[in-house]
Amino acid sequence: MSDTDQQSPPPRSGPVQFLLSNKLETAMWLSRLFTVYCSVMFILPLLGPQAAANFYQRALLANALTSALRLHQRLPHFQLSRAFLAQALQEDSCHYLLYSLILVNSYPITMSIFPVFLFSLLHATTYTKKVLDSMGPSSLPFIRNFLEKLTSNQQNILKFIACNEIFLMPATVFMLFSGQGSLLQPFIYYRFLTLRYTSRRNPYCRTLFTELRILLEHFIMKPTCPAFFRRMCLSSIAFISRLAPTGV
Fold this sequence. Notes:
Elements: H1 15-21, H2 23-43, H3 49-74, H4 82-88, H5 92-103, H6 110-135, H7 141-152, H8 154-177, H9 185-197, H10 204-220, H11 227-243
Helix pairs in contact: 2-3, 2-6, 3-5, 3-6, 5-9, 6-7, 6-8, 8-9, 8-10, 10-11
Protein backbone atom coordinates (compact mmCIF):
# COMPACT_ATOMS: atom_id res chain seq x y z
CA MET A 1 0.00 0.00 0.00
CA SER A 2 1.46 3.38 -1.00
CA ASP A 3 1.83 6.36 1.29
CA THR A 4 -0.47 8.40 -0.95
CA ASP A 5 -3.45 6.19 -0.25
CA GLN A 6 -6.15 8.23 1.42
CA GLN A 7 -7.36 7.15 4.83
CA SER A 8 -11.07 6.91 5.46
CA PRO A 9 -12.46 9.68 7.70
CA PRO A 10 -13.15 8.75 11.33
CA PRO A 11 -16.72 7.70 12.02
CA ARG A 12 -19.08 10.40 13.26
CA SER A 13 -19.78 10.13 16.96
CA GLY A 14 -23.47 9.55 17.65
CA PRO A 15 -25.69 11.52 20.03
CA VAL A 16 -25.11 9.10 22.91
CA GLN A 17 -21.34 9.45 22.68
CA PHE A 18 -21.70 13.22 22.42
CA LEU A 19 -23.89 13.40 25.53
CA LEU A 20 -21.58 11.16 27.56
CA SER A 21 -18.51 13.16 26.58
CA ASN A 22 -20.04 16.38 28.01
CA LYS A 23 -21.53 15.17 31.28
CA LEU A 24 -21.98 18.54 33.01
CA GLU A 25 -23.46 20.23 29.93
CA THR A 26 -25.72 17.21 29.40
CA ALA A 27 -26.92 17.32 33.01
CA MET A 28 -27.81 21.01 32.68
CA TRP A 29 -29.52 20.35 29.33
CA LEU A 30 -31.66 17.57 30.79
CA SER A 31 -32.58 19.62 33.85
CA ARG A 32 -33.58 22.52 31.58
CA LEU A 33 -35.76 20.25 29.46
CA PHE A 34 -37.37 18.91 32.64
CA THR A 35 -37.97 22.49 33.77
CA VAL A 36 -39.65 23.26 30.44
CA TYR A 37 -41.84 20.14 30.74
CA CYS A 38 -42.92 20.93 34.32
CA SER A 39 -43.58 24.57 33.43
CA VAL A 40 -45.83 23.58 30.53
CA MET A 41 -47.71 21.14 32.78
CA PHE A 42 -48.26 23.95 35.28
CA ILE A 43 -49.33 26.55 32.71
CA LEU A 44 -51.67 24.01 31.08
CA PRO A 45 -53.13 22.17 34.12
CA LEU A 46 -54.26 19.08 32.24
CA LEU A 47 -54.01 16.87 35.33
CA GLY A 48 -55.86 19.15 37.75
CA PRO A 49 -54.91 22.01 40.09
CA GLN A 50 -53.14 19.84 42.69
CA ALA A 51 -50.90 18.24 40.06
CA ALA A 52 -50.24 21.70 38.59
CA ALA A 53 -49.02 22.95 41.98
CA ASN A 54 -46.65 19.98 42.18
CA PHE A 55 -45.31 20.74 38.71
CA TYR A 56 -44.78 24.35 39.81
CA GLN A 57 -42.49 23.23 42.62
CA ARG A 58 -40.70 20.70 40.42
CA ALA A 59 -40.02 23.35 37.78
CA LEU A 60 -38.46 25.69 40.35
CA LEU A 61 -36.44 22.89 41.96
CA ALA A 62 -35.16 21.77 38.57
CA ASN A 63 -34.24 25.35 37.77
CA ALA A 64 -32.41 25.60 41.11
CA LEU A 65 -30.42 22.49 40.17
CA THR A 66 -29.56 23.94 36.77
CA SER A 67 -28.52 27.25 38.32
CA ALA A 68 -26.34 25.50 40.91
CA LEU A 69 -24.61 23.45 38.20
CA ARG A 70 -24.08 26.55 36.07
CA LEU A 71 -22.72 28.46 39.05
CA HIS A 72 -20.31 25.61 39.77
CA GLN A 73 -19.23 25.69 36.14
CA ARG A 74 -18.61 29.45 36.29
CA LEU A 75 -16.95 29.38 39.74
CA PRO A 76 -15.55 25.88 40.23
CA HIS A 77 -13.34 26.67 43.23
CA PHE A 78 -15.59 27.34 46.21
CA GLN A 79 -14.25 29.59 48.95
CA LEU A 80 -15.89 30.58 52.20
CA SER A 81 -15.11 34.27 51.92
CA ARG A 82 -16.82 37.60 51.35
CA ALA A 83 -14.94 38.10 48.06
CA PHE A 84 -16.22 34.78 46.67
CA LEU A 85 -19.79 35.58 47.77
CA ALA A 86 -19.59 38.99 46.07
CA GLN A 87 -18.32 37.34 42.90
CA ALA A 88 -21.08 34.71 43.02
CA LEU A 89 -23.78 37.38 43.42
CA GLN A 90 -22.67 38.90 40.13
CA GLU A 91 -23.53 35.69 38.26
CA ASP A 92 -26.96 35.34 36.62
CA SER A 93 -27.05 31.68 37.65
CA CYS A 94 -26.80 32.76 41.31
CA HIS A 95 -29.67 35.19 40.76
CA TYR A 96 -31.96 32.44 39.52
CA LEU A 97 -30.85 30.01 42.19
CA LEU A 98 -32.03 32.65 44.67
CA TYR A 99 -35.20 33.23 42.60
CA SER A 100 -36.12 29.54 42.74
CA LEU A 101 -35.52 29.31 46.49
CA ILE A 102 -37.64 32.44 47.11
CA LEU A 103 -40.66 31.18 45.19
CA VAL A 104 -40.54 27.38 45.53
CA ASN A 105 -42.81 27.33 48.60
CA SER A 106 -44.91 30.35 47.67
CA TYR A 107 -48.42 30.41 46.27
CA PRO A 108 -48.08 29.32 42.60
CA ILE A 109 -48.80 32.06 40.05
CA THR A 110 -48.20 31.89 36.33
CA MET A 111 -46.16 35.11 36.23
CA SER A 112 -43.46 33.59 38.44
CA ILE A 113 -42.99 30.50 36.25
CA PHE A 114 -42.52 32.34 32.93
CA PRO A 115 -38.91 33.50 33.59
CA VAL A 116 -37.88 29.98 34.60
CA PHE A 117 -39.68 28.44 31.63
CA LEU A 118 -38.34 30.85 29.01
CA PHE A 119 -34.76 30.96 30.30
CA SER A 120 -34.62 27.15 30.32
CA LEU A 121 -36.05 27.05 26.81
CA LEU A 122 -33.55 29.61 25.48
CA HIS A 123 -30.51 28.10 27.20
CA ALA A 124 -31.41 24.60 26.04
CA THR A 125 -31.54 25.76 22.41
CA THR A 126 -27.78 25.90 21.77
CA TYR A 127 -27.06 22.47 23.22
CA THR A 128 -30.07 20.96 21.44
CA LYS A 129 -28.58 22.17 18.14
CA LYS A 130 -25.31 20.42 19.01
CA VAL A 131 -27.18 17.20 19.81
CA LEU A 132 -29.01 17.42 16.48
CA ASP A 133 -25.70 18.02 14.68
CA SER A 134 -24.33 14.83 16.23
CA MET A 135 -27.32 12.99 14.72
CA GLY A 136 -26.67 14.44 11.26
CA PRO A 137 -26.59 17.84 9.55
CA SER A 138 -30.20 17.61 8.36
CA SER A 139 -31.79 15.60 11.18
CA LEU A 140 -35.23 16.61 12.53
CA PRO A 141 -35.70 19.76 10.40
CA PHE A 142 -38.95 20.76 12.15
CA ILE A 143 -37.14 20.99 15.50
CA ARG A 144 -34.32 22.97 13.88
CA ASN A 145 -36.84 25.43 12.45
CA PHE A 146 -38.42 25.86 15.88
CA LEU A 147 -35.01 26.50 17.45
CA GLU A 148 -34.17 29.06 14.77
CA LYS A 149 -37.41 30.92 15.48
CA LEU A 150 -36.59 30.95 19.19
CA THR A 151 -33.13 32.34 18.47
CA SER A 152 -34.46 35.05 16.15
CA ASN A 153 -36.92 36.19 18.86
CA GLN A 154 -34.43 36.00 21.72
CA GLN A 155 -34.37 39.74 22.40
CA ASN A 156 -38.17 39.97 22.67
CA ILE A 157 -38.24 36.94 24.94
CA LEU A 158 -35.59 38.44 27.23
CA LYS A 159 -37.60 41.66 27.45
CA PHE A 160 -40.71 39.68 28.36
CA ILE A 161 -38.74 37.88 31.09
CA ALA A 162 -37.52 41.22 32.46
CA CYS A 163 -41.12 42.48 32.47
CA ASN A 164 -42.16 39.48 34.57
CA GLU A 165 -39.24 40.04 36.95
CA ILE A 166 -40.30 43.67 37.50
CA PHE A 167 -44.03 43.14 37.96
CA LEU A 168 -43.49 40.22 40.33
CA MET A 169 -42.32 42.80 42.89
CA PRO A 170 -45.78 44.39 43.38
CA ALA A 171 -47.29 40.91 43.01
CA THR A 172 -45.37 39.69 46.09
CA VAL A 173 -46.68 42.69 48.05
CA PHE A 174 -50.23 41.96 46.90
CA MET A 175 -49.82 38.29 47.87
CA LEU A 176 -48.68 39.39 51.34
CA PHE A 177 -51.80 41.49 51.95
CA SER A 178 -54.06 38.78 50.49
CA GLY A 179 -52.65 36.18 52.90
CA GLN A 180 -50.90 34.12 50.20
CA GLY A 181 -47.34 35.26 50.85
CA SER A 182 -44.86 35.57 53.69
CA LEU A 183 -43.68 38.75 55.38
CA LEU A 184 -40.06 38.29 54.26
CA GLN A 185 -40.79 37.43 50.64
CA PRO A 186 -41.14 41.01 49.29
CA PHE A 187 -37.87 42.06 50.97
CA ILE A 188 -35.95 39.05 49.68
CA TYR A 189 -37.44 39.45 46.21
CA TYR A 190 -36.43 43.12 46.24
CA ARG A 191 -32.85 41.94 46.80
CA PHE A 192 -33.19 39.60 43.80
CA LEU A 193 -34.54 42.46 41.68
CA THR A 194 -31.60 44.71 42.59
CA LEU A 195 -29.24 41.92 41.50
CA ARG A 196 -31.04 41.68 38.16
CA TYR A 197 -30.93 45.47 37.79
CA THR A 198 -27.15 45.47 38.21
CA SER A 199 -26.53 42.36 36.08
CA ARG A 200 -23.51 42.71 33.81
CA ARG A 201 -24.51 40.03 31.29
CA ASN A 202 -28.25 40.78 31.07
CA PRO A 203 -29.14 44.49 30.94
CA TYR A 204 -32.79 43.95 29.99
CA CYS A 205 -34.20 44.51 33.47
CA ARG A 206 -32.40 47.85 33.77
CA THR A 207 -33.37 48.81 30.21
CA LEU A 208 -37.03 47.97 30.75
CA PHE A 209 -37.18 50.03 33.95
CA THR A 210 -35.95 53.00 31.92
CA GLU A 211 -38.40 52.38 29.08
CA LEU A 212 -41.34 52.04 31.46
CA ARG A 213 -40.39 55.27 33.21
CA ILE A 214 -40.15 57.16 29.91
CA LEU A 215 -43.46 55.72 28.73
CA LEU A 216 -45.25 56.63 31.95
CA GLU A 217 -43.79 60.15 32.06
CA HIS A 218 -44.87 60.71 28.45
CA PHE A 219 -48.40 59.60 29.30
CA ILE A 220 -48.87 61.66 32.48
CA MET A 221 -47.53 64.86 30.87
CA LYS A 222 -50.43 64.97 28.45
CA PRO A 223 -52.95 67.79 29.16
CA THR A 224 -55.79 65.28 29.44
CA CYS A 225 -54.14 63.48 32.36
CA PRO A 226 -55.78 64.37 35.72
CA ALA A 227 -53.53 66.36 38.05
CA PHE A 228 -53.97 64.02 41.04
CA PHE A 229 -53.01 61.01 38.89
CA ARG A 230 -49.96 62.89 37.57
CA ARG A 231 -48.81 63.72 41.13
CA MET A 232 -49.35 60.13 42.23
CA CYS A 233 -47.31 58.75 39.32
CA LEU A 234 -44.48 61.26 39.83
CA SER A 235 -44.32 60.36 43.52
CA SER A 236 -44.22 56.66 42.64
CA ILE A 237 -41.45 57.23 40.09
CA ALA A 238 -39.42 59.20 42.63
CA PHE A 239 -39.91 56.49 45.27
CA ILE A 240 -38.86 53.68 42.92
CA SER A 241 -35.87 55.70 41.73
CA ARG A 242 -34.67 56.05 45.34
CA LEU A 243 -34.85 52.26 45.71
CA ALA A 244 -32.75 51.64 42.59
CA PRO A 245 -29.10 50.60 43.13
CA THR A 246 -26.55 53.36 42.59
CA GLY A 247 -23.34 53.23 40.59
CA VAL A 248 -24.73 51.07 37.75
